[in-house]
Amino acid sequence: MSTGAYGDDAFEFLLNPDNSASGQSQPSASPAGRPTTAGVANQEPVVDAAAFDPPEQVQTRLERMKAARNPLCEAAQPLLRMLADMPASLDSLAAVASLRSLLVREVAAFQKVCDKASLPWKHVAAVRYALCTALDEAANRTRWGSGGIWAAGGLLLKFEGEVDGGEKFFLLIGRMATDPQEYIDVLEVLYRILSLGFEGRYSVAADGPRHLEQIRQRMLTLISGTRDTMRLELSPHWRGEEPGRMRLLKSVPVWATAGVAALCVFSLFAWYKYRLLAQSNALEAKILAIGEPVKVAAPVVHERLRLSILLKDEIARGLLSVEETASSSRVVFRGDYVFLPGQSRIRPELDPVLTKVAQEVVRVGGNVTVTGHTDNQPIHTAEFPDNLVLSERRAAFVADVLKAHGMPGNRIEAVGKGDTQPVADNSTAEGRSRNRRVEVFVTH
Q1: Model pLDDT for residues 66-120, shown as the tens digit of each residue
Q2: Cβ of 263: how many Cβ atoms within 10 Å?
Q3: From-to residues of CATH 1.25.40.590 in the chain
Q4: Burial of 425 (0-12, 13-18, 19+ CB in 10 A)
Q5: CA 405, CA 408: separation in Å to the nearest integer?
Q6: How many angstroms separate the CA atoms of 280 and 274, rounded?
Q7: How does pLDDT run across 264-315, given as a tens digit for each residue?
Q8: What CATH code is assigned to 307-443?
Q9: What is the predicted pLDDT for the residue at 20?
Q10: Read out DSSP for 383-422?
Q11: Transmembrane segments in this chain: where (predicted)?
């Protein structure tokens, strides 16, 4: 892959600290003994990540790096995730500043764990440069990062003192591709950055997407060949069975194999013969049954429970009467025999009778209407100011007994009619006695 018009000097700013891009200045050594990056205009010190990364977190990352095939790629995972999940919108400049601080901290942490892992400083510097460039490009593409808001304090400017990373990113690839054994870990990280959408100088170049795809494919081929992770054989299992594996089967006599096969065939034939005979017998029985009269079972008629039968003992004692039709039943309580005079309570000795009626009504089922009636003799008490209230209270009392024995509340209604529906002449004592009553009307 060509390194472009910049030549080798574009790579020296990271990989050859002994000479600057102009070939004249000599950088000083870093405190750790590693040469500082030459050609950096911004000499502000790199942010120390010690205040942000507790020792146990750094130690955990170091352990993962030691276990990884590519320690550089493992160390760069947080920044790669940030590159993939760059927010599309931020609601304030404070949020932009917070994101920039987070990225600065993570770049510094990346540098720190790589130093502790004793990774080659050239590799670390190249990956850091590429990550800063890609993160700056991703931020500048957003609405909140466009217009120079992010570029004024970009990561590449802060850590490297440069703003043209989109050109040098591809120069790094071209230079490292000449020695893939040395820079294979770096190339793999740069390949991941390209796969996450980094375009660099090709974002404005004619036919840029095609060039980017060609670079990615060449890098994949280079990495795969260097890592030896891809099999080149079209059929890695083309060889047959090794001698000796079929020796046991070859030792079985032919006549034994033929005998077992014949037994299996005969057993299969016998099974299908049996199934065919069974189906033939069933079909023959169906043919013979044609024309015979079909015996239809008589429908089972369930006799409806009748209150006149269930309450025959109470009817015989004259405590109540029952009138029934095909769809309803009416149970009538004589008020003089059941309720105390001028009261809504029944006589104590008739509690079992009312309980029996409630149980049988619930047993029969249906919708129930309890209606209270009185004679035309006026009543004026504090509890019962008139006959209508007295009839309502008596009906409600009987309805409560029915509910207490299992009648659903939504299927029962209690009403009072007072003296509006007499069944006898109120001018005689016998007629008034018949008019004082409570009726339980059940519809089936």
Answers
A1: 998 999 999 999 999 999 999 988 888 898 899 999 999 999 999 999 999 999 9
A2: 10
A3: 9-227
A4: exposed
A5: 9
A6: 10
A7: 998 988 988 888 888 888 887 778 777 666 666 666 656 677 888 888 888 8
A8: 3.30.1330.60
A9: 31
A10: S-SSHHHHHHHHHHHHHHHHHHTT--GGGEEEEEEETSS-
A11: 252-272
Distance CA 120, CA 184 (A): 12
What radius of gyration do the chain's Cα atoms show? 51
Cα-based distances in Å from 264 to 55, 88, 257, 258, 274: 72, 70, 11, 10, 15
The structure's pTM equals: 0.44
Residue positions counted in the chain: 444
Sign of the Cα torsion 317, 320, 324, 328 reads negative
- The order of strands in the sheet holding 367-373 is 320-324, 328-334, 437-443, 367-373, 412-418
Distance of CA 132 to the CA centre of its chain: 38
Find the DSSP H helices in 26-120: 55-67, 71-75, 77-84, 93-116
Residue type, 292: E
Does domain 9-227 correspond to CATH entry 1.20.58.340? no
Q: Where in the chain is the domain with CATH 3.30.1330.60?
A: 307-443
pLDDT in tens, 219-249: 898 888 887 654 445 455 556 555 555 566 6
